[in-house]
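[job 4471] stage=fold_predict status=RUNNING
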Amino acid sequence: MDKLKHKYGQFESVKFDSRREDFYKYLNYLKDKNIDTLDLLEHYTAYAGHMALHRMFTMYEYYKMVSNVAGHVAEIGVYKGAGTMLFAKLVHVFESESLTQVHGFDWFKGTGKGGENDSELVPEGGYQCSYDDLMELVALQKLDHIVRIHSIDLTSNALQEFFDEFKHLQFKLVFMDSGMYEIMQNCIPLFWERLTPGGIMVFDQYNHELGPGETLSVRELLPNAKVKTLPNSWMPNAYVVKE
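[job 4471] inference complete, writing structure tokens
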């Protein structure tokens, strides 16, 4: 069990289990070395694991797919902001004169109580993070003109009320980074309606035992969708193009 208190199942969650022991040895090495923060920031490719970098490359590939599609970027399930902040920096670099913004949606109370369509491998209360800390990070990096964080209970009617208020919002990339059935049931239809044709909906835990509610929701709500993947991507591992 790791620091996120995950339990590991029998299928997808243990595919790379043989790497785990070496990974934690490496984490302890970094901790003991007490590496200077400036070095970690400026030379992060020397320290980050290849799977962490690969996830970043995957997000970039998805972003490139919609470079000529109109709309904003959305992430459902923000946690500490790694996805939202990465997309914001891509917008800052590649769309400096566009109106594109990145909208993050989370309630910042951690994983809610799962239902019968969710996995017991993800504990209630996991992935909890501070809204204030994230907003401070956004401000310090001067990304508040791009990033918009919405503290919303995504299982409630609050998301519909949000879109009723901001009727103009349209998206070119929607990143589903939650995996919980009730959230997916509420979010997929509302964001799909506002996804520009040619845009993509990306799923972090499709066909993964940690997020069965995500796969089931895609089956139920997008039954005719052609679910594709980037062949060398471990996570996010699936996407659908809106025709």
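[job 4471] summary: The CA atoms of residues 200 and 241 lie 4 Å apart.
[job 4471] exit 0
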